[in-house]
Write a structure and sequence with these properties.
This protein is an alpha+beta fold and 145 residues long. The chain contains two helices and four strands; from the N terminus they run H-E-E-H-E-E. A four-stranded antiparallel beta sheet has the order 2-1-3-4.
């Protein structure tokens, strides 16, 4: 082989080596980028899952608070419910009842205690309001339905 051909082959081989070296380096960089993208996507999925879990937990807490609020006596500022059972003029019995009590629960309590009538009331910071002895709703009303 002539000297020029040898030089040309060496130059071509050197160019191919440089090309493949650059290609390999570029592929390694792309692999690192792909790995980083995968890691970021995994973090995003974890964050979404955590956010969903937090949202579910917050909903459960809100539901629990509503249930506890309904079963509580409530505040004097909003009015506490009073269920009074009447037995003609012989006796009366009054209970401060939870906010989730309804008129039907008060009438049921009247029947179970032997009363002949009931009276709904509300206890406020500044006093007590009573409905009629016929079971009418007091004014202002503290949530009787």
């Amino acid at each position: 082989m002539s000297e020029i051909r040898k030089t040309l082959v060496v130059a071509i081989l050197a160019g191919l080596v440089a090309f493949f070296t650059a290609l390999l380096s570029n592929m390694q960089k792309n692999e690192k980028v792909d790995n980083r993208i995968d890691a970021v996507q995994a973090q995003a999925e974890d964050a979404k899952s955590s956010a969903d879990t937090a949202k579910d937990s917050a909903k459960r807490v809100q539901d629990d608070v509503k249930q506890l609020g309904a079963a509580s006596l409530g505040s004097l500022a909003d009015g506490q419910k009073l269920c009074r059972v009447l037995q003609a003029k012989t006796w009366r019995d009054g209970l401060i009842v939870p906010q989730n009590w309804s008129i039907s629960l008060c009438t049921d309590y009247m029947k179970k205690t032997g009363g002949t009538g009931y009276q709904l009331g509300c206890i406020h910071e500044d006093g007590t309001t009573l409905g009629g002895m016929d079971g009418t709703i007091p004014s202002p009303n503290c949530g009787w339905r």
